[in-house]
Structure to design on (834 residues):
């Protein structure tokens, strides 16, 4: 008559794991499609590359209801303050995927008009390369983010560095080395 | 279509001064000899390229409008700072800036280009927004990118750059603004 | 019609505001008298009808200034965008509202300005297509086409017929994919999420064909000055036939889903009307101009490539409203399918690019054999080829309207001035006129029917 007798009727786990499971299986993206990458992001939301199976097809227009900001496209000087404002309006926990080379580093547009990497404005969790990244690449980035959510700490907050911009510091994966997207255990 | 020596698959317009015989089904249209004292010449894929002075620019645009050129297809500005030796017809003094207006006549299916020289020390030109309201946004862009002011435009403010931006990006003395990148050559100016 | 309480003023494109007779709007800038439409000419109309809002972009309202007990004849100016699900990219609109009715509008653009025209001056003509293709990212092949045509006009090269027909095939397929994308987002904006999914499903067929031919789903850099980058793969006729058959059959499904549906018709018929004079005055082209009854399609009236040798109809609307624009785009998909079928039958054999050593690089295999080929390859890809001095303006019919390229060359291997006349940039000027007098929900439908692509608006 101990807890062992109830094994087939209860599942036990750590609270942390349950919270992370809930968080990563319904990451709702905020609509932040800017340029060509936005079209590929919409393709990911459409039938062929369905992100609904990951629980993510609800693109929330209001940043208050969104968890993930996929910065899809080139960020111009005029748009950068808007980007920061939308990011600030999102509730914790929030993540940022920088989709495409223009968002990651400025891409092929190394000039006066484009912010050379969106990580100068917001802290980025995952970078997805490509011009535009094909939907498979974006799915890989999303799954990498899921791994990061699965293995990262839930209460540790990224500490803003001294100086310009914020950097994602203090995230340590439980498994050593790079995060590999393999079949979740 | 009588093919001239080059057949790019792009229809070539008739030469200026002649009739548009090469255009099947193109009715009417004048011989484009309005304001004959304005220097002009032919061009690639266009019936006429006219070079009015700043003072006669608006009259010429209005004359073309009366003549059946219903639409202003494009208005842009060019900075000839590093290419002062471009070829111009007799009687046209080259200046630093040029405003280029491409007009389109739907009824006679032809195009015409107007190029006005705008000096560097006085980059001002009359606006044609009341003749062609579609030039509104195009003139704002020319102002934003090149710094040419259009007198008579209802709202001449920056359209592409932030309102507090300094400088006019498409000018030749405004650098590209490249940041240094590993393995690339030396960074561009600025 | 666009909602309860509005009437359709006969002969114009404007609906009256909800309180008839109240043409004077009290705004921050003072009362604005709106004179009778018949008495003003078009240019004054645009200003005095009060379609366009002239306010500085940075105008913000301090919440302390807002009078919460406002009387009903005050209007408010609200901001829509740039981050908004329905503005088709980063378009910001300042709307002056009287309740739910839109009075004046100011579209604010520049949130995607990439300095592509400046970048174009730094890239050679070979690299230029990579830059230009990202302007109108829904129809990238059209951008590449107009840039290549402009370059070839200055170069004076003659293209082999196969190159011309391959270009035509790719460009028409791109028109199909762009219009399908429009149908998807338009359906989404009007509430039909299934249309979004269907549109993208069909689009995937076209994109996978593009991936097969050009290597990329979007932003292909395939049409280059001198021809195209590579020949079509074997068996392309089968792939394209499948696309044609599937898309054609599915357009009838869309008819059932949308055209026959009463809610869709209520939301689009009579909404966002434009007259032909307004469209011409505002330099609108493409489906917007054709919806007002002007049969202007550059493929028919000023043909380029081989459009004078294929058979297709130009679709023209009557009322200039959103439904006409929807119908035009749907039927243009069908016309493009018709053109593509003719291209499949009539594709000529031959070279896919001009064999001028100075312009196109030699085939890769020859680089191992011939020193000259190696040197030419090196020169073309590092320095680029020189284009004779001159200027040219070339225009093609993109899915959004007249896409033009004004190219000035100074004899070097980089353009001196590259200006792209983006159709959406000019078409956005019709937005204040379309939105005037409608409801906010109609504003969404109107923006969608203008089909702006912010990449080419801002460049």
């Amino acid at each position: 008559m101990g807890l062992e007798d109830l094994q087939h009727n209860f599942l036990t786990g750590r609270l942390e794991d349950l919270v992370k499971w809930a968080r990563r299986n319904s990451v709702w993206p905020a609509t932040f499609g800017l340029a060509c990458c936005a079209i590929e992001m919409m393709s990911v939301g459409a039938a062929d590359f369905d992100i609904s199976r990951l629980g993510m097809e609800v693109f929330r227009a209001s940043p208050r209801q969104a968890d993930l900001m996929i910065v899809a496209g080139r960020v111009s000087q005029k748009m950068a303050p808007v980007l920061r404002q939308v990011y600030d309006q999102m509730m914790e926990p929030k993540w940022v995927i920088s989709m495409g080379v223009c968002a990651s580093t400025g891409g092929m547009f190394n000039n006066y008009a484009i912010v050379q990497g969106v990580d100068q404005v917001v802290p980025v969790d995952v970078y997805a390369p490509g011009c535009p990244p094909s939907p498979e690449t974006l799915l890989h980035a999303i799954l990498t983010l899921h791994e990061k959510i699965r293995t990262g700490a839930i209460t540790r907050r990224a500490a803003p560095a001294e100086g310009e911009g914020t950097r994602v510091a203090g995230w340590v994966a439980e498994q050593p080395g790079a995060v590999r997207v393999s079949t979740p255990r | 279509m009588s093919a001239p020596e080059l057949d790019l698959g792009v229809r070539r317009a008739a030469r200026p001064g002649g009739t548009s015989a090469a255009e099947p089904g193109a009715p009417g249209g004048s011989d484009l000899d309005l304001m004959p004292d304005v220097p002009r010449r032919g061009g690639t894929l266009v019936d006429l390229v006219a070079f009015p002075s700043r003072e006669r620019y608006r009259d010429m645009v209005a004359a073309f409008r009366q003549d059946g050129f219903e639409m202003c297809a494009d208005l842009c500005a060019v900075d000839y700072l590093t290419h002062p030796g471009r070829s111009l017809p007799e009687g046209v003094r080259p200046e630093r800036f040029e405003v280029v207006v491409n007009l389109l006549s739907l009824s006679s299916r032809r195009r015409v280009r107007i190029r006005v020289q705008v000096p560097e020390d006085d980059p001002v030109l009359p606006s044609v927004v009341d003749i062609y309201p579609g030039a509104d946004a195009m003139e704002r862009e020319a102002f934003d990118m090149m710094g040419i002011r259009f007198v008579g435009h209802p709202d001449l403010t920056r359209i592409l750059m932030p309102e507090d931006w300094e400088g006019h990006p498409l000018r030749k003395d405004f650098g590209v603004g490249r940041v240094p990148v590993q393995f690339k050559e030396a960074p561009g100016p600025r | 019609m666009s909602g309860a309480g509005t009437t359709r003023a006969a002969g114009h494109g404007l609906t009256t505001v909800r309180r008839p007779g109240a043409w004077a709007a009290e705004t921050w800038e003072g009362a604005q008298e709106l004179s009778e439409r018949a008495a003003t000419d078009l240019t004054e109309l645009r200003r005095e009808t009060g379609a366009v809002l002239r306010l500085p972009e940075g105008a913000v309202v301090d919440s302390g200034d807002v009078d919460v007990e406002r009387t009903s004849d005050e209007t408010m100016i609200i901001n829509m965008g740039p981050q908004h699900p329905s503005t088709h990219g980063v378009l910001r609109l300042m709307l002056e509202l009287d309740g739910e009715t839109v009075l004046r509008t100011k579209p604010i653009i520049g949130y995607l300005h990439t300095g592509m025209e400046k970048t174009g001056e730094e890239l050679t003509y070979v690299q230029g297509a990579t830059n230009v293709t990202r302007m109108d990212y829904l129809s990238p092949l059209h951008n590449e086409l107009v840039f290549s045509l402009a370059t070839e006009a200055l170069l004076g090269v003659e293209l082999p017929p196969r190159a011309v027909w391959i270009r035509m095939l790719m460009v028409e397929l791109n028109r199909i994919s762009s219009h399908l994308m429009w149908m998807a987002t338009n359906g989404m904006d009007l509430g039909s999420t299934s249309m979004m999914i269907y549109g993208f499903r069909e689009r995937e067929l076209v994109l996978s064909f593009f991936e097969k031919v050009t290597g990329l789903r979007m932003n292909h850099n395939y049409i280059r000055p001198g021809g195209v980058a590579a020949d079509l793969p074997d068996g392309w006729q089968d792939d394209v036939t499948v696309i044609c058959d599937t898309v054609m059959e599915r357009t009838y499904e869309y008819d059932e889903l949308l055209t026959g549906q009463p809610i869709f018709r209520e939301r689009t018929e009579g909404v966002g009307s434009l007259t032909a004079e307004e469209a011409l005055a505002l330099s609108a082209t493409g489906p917007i101009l054709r919806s007002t009854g002007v049969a202007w399609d550059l493929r028919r009236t000023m043909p380029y490539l081989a459009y004078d040798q294929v058979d297709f109809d130009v679709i023209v609307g009557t009322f200039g409203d959103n439904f006409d624009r929807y119908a035009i785009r749907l039927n243009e998909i069908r016309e493009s399918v018709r053109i593509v079928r003719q291209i499949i039958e009539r594709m000529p054999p031959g070279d896919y690019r001009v064999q001028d050593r100075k312009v196109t690089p030699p085939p890769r295999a020859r680089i191992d054999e011939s020193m000259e080929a190696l040197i030419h390859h090196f020169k073309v890809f590092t320095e680029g080829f020189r284009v004779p001095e001159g200027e040219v303006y070339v225009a093609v019919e993109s899915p959004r309207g007249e896409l033009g390229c004004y190219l000035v060359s100074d004899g070097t291997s980089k353009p001196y001035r590259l200006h792209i006349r983006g159709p959406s940039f000019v078409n956005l000027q019709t937005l204040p006129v379309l939105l005037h007098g409608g409801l906010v929900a109609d504003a969404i439908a109107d923006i969608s029917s203008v089909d702006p692509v912010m990449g080419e608006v801002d460049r």
About this structure: Chain B touches chain C through 55 residues (CB under 8 Å). Residues 48 and 81 of chain B are 25 Å apart (CA to CA). The mean pLDDT of chain B is 77.
